[in-house]
Amino acid sequence: MRIVSTTAALLFTAGSALAGGAHDHTGGIQAESGNAQLAEFDLIHAKVTTEGNVAIFHMAVSRKAGESKPAATGKLAGSKVFSYVWPTTIDPAEVGFDEKAGILAMAITSHPDFDDTPLFDENDDGKRDNDGDLWHSHWVVLGPDDACGQGALKVIDIPEGSKPRLPDTWPGLPLLIDSPGWDPVIDEELVEVRVPFSNIAVVEAAKFDGVTSGLRVNANVHSPLLCVTDVFDVASGDLSLPGKVNE
Asked: Which of 11, 17, 18, 233 has the fewest CB atoms nearer than 10 Å to its CB?
């Protein structure tokens, strides 16, 4: 059985209550439909709102969010990751990384060939290393690297021997990634995750965008380790982060 804090359990219960309910498609960034080959990655809108000290990251797609997952290859090298992502202007230091380390993004991901949430047993089978295929949440810090393709982004690598500031729930990968365990809700066209902040004002002052994308682990499992290789859709159309929280 997965162990979560009381706060996390309450947040999950609140989020689960949305399943089957009416989805509010107003506000945030209204995206042009028909821009992605797969309807489950075709963004309709993306928004971020707050309730008390909780930030609600929300997006909707044309049809059946989460229906497509990467095909398992049986190995880490070259494996794929599918993701629903909210890039933000929030400083990475607010969630436990170094200041100005890169672009902080909340990501909901699935990747059947590896597990990067070692603190949690998402499928409740008594093992914590075999459920990467289930949709789960991450904070990631993104930055450009032409080794991933001209102008492409990656999850920023941690060079050998360096000691950056990292969150307590960092999963041990040589990347600026966090596995905080906040459970996403995926229901029909909706993708949503609720995240508590000690200083919610930094969220309310932030801007954001919405992205659906594919990433790939380097075939050599070396820096750059995890590149964004496919951008399925961008809510703004140009990754300009025009979204304003609570608007």
From this structure: 17
What is the SS3 string spanning the chain?
CCCCCHHHHHHHHHHHCCCCCCCCCCCCEECCCCCCCCHHHCEEEEEEEEECCEEEEEEEECCCCCCCCCCCCCCCCCCEEEEEEEEECCCHHHHCCCCCCCEEEEEEEECCCCCCCCCCCCCCCCCCCCCCCCCEEEEEEEEECHHHCCCCEEECECCCCCCCCCCCCCCCCCECEECCCCCCEEECCEEEEEEECCCHHHHHCCEECCEEEEEEECCCCCCCCEEEEEEEEECCCCCCCCEECCC
Residue pair 92/98 in contact (Cβ under 8 Å)? The answer is yes
Pairing status of strand 136-144 against strand 54-61 = unpaired
25-34, 84-93, 125-134, 190-199: segment of lowest average pLDDT? 125-134
ω before 224 within 30° of 0 (cis)?
Answer: yes
Tell me the C-alpha distance between 165 and 175, whole Å.
Answer: 12
The model's pTM: 0.89
Q: Quote the CA–CA distance of 218 and 79 in Å, as a whole number.
A: 8
Q: Per-domain residue ranges for the chain?
A: 6-238
Backbone angles phi, psi at 142, to 5 degrees: -105, 150
Question: Could you tell me the two tokens for 24?
Answer: 């509010």
Q: Are 47 and 169 in contact, with CB atoms under 8 Å apart? A: no
- The proportion of the chain whose per-residue pLDDT surpasses 90, expressed as a percent, equals 79
pLDDT in tens, 46-95: 999 999 999 999 999 999 999 999 999 999 999 999 999 999 999 999 99
Point out which residues pair with 55 in neighbouring strands: 50, 195
